[in-house]
From TrEMBL:
Residues 13-65, 88-168 form the Mga helix-turn-helix domain. InterPro entries: BglG_antiterminators, Mga_HTH. The keyword Transcription applies. This is Mga helix-turn-helix domain-containing protein. It holds the Pfam family Mga. Keywords: Transcription, Transcription regulation. It comes from Secundilactobacillus kimchicus JCM 15530.
Length: 176
């Protein structure tokens, strides 16, 4: 399902997974090195992750020695792994619903093509950003021997198209 997410959401989920699996022995410099990011970028993503975890009454706590743990809001007690994994799945679904790549794929499914200008206006993105998302969607489609034409509609065998959208909807758990 991560393949349908925008890049920033993938980074957030990678950080959360690392914090869950490596706590309490992980620090910002360690995470930055592990994911080949600058420490400032990692710190910014952790701040965003803290905001995203608030609805689940969770927080990312940093102790005196700089180690990071996932805790209940207002406490320093570690959160159990089973609950952490449930929150991880819920966040992934939340990010999926915000993902412009996923929205572009749903537009292809529902309308047969993606109108560049309409999509850019609806998602508040530039033409250049649309092109980056289009390239990522093309990469996903290529895995199923499909492609996009210049009008941004799918090219390929009908059976492959059905298989792709079945995989998309099944993997994402999308229901509406």
């Amino acid at each position: 399902m991560k393949s349908f997410l925008d890049g920033q959401y993938v980074h957030l989920l990678q950080l959360l997974k690392a914090i869950i699996t490596e706590q309490p022995n992980v620090s910002i410099p360690t995470l930055a090195e592990k994911f080949s990011m600058a420490p400032g970028t990692t710190n910014g993503l952790i701040k965003q992750l803290r905001e995203d975890l608030k609805p689940y009454a969770l927080d990312i706590h940093k102790n005196e020695s700089g180690l990071i743990t996932l805790t209940e809001s207002g406490r320093t007690t570690l959160v159990k792994t089973a609950y952490s994994n449930t929150v991880y799945q819920q966040l992934m679904m939340r990010y999926l619903n915000k993902s412009k790549i996923f929205f572009m794929l749903l537009t292809l499914l529902n309308e047969g093509a993606v109108d560049r200008q309409t999509f850019c206006d609806k998602m508040f993105i530039s033409q250049a950003t649309f092109s980056r998302y289009r390239r990522r969607v093309t990469e996903l489609l290529n895995q199923y021997y499909l492609g996009l034409n210049s009008q941004n509609s799918i090219l390929g065998d009908e059976t492959q198209i059905v298989m792709f959208f079945t995989a998309l909807l099944t993997e994402s758990g999308y229901t509406s």
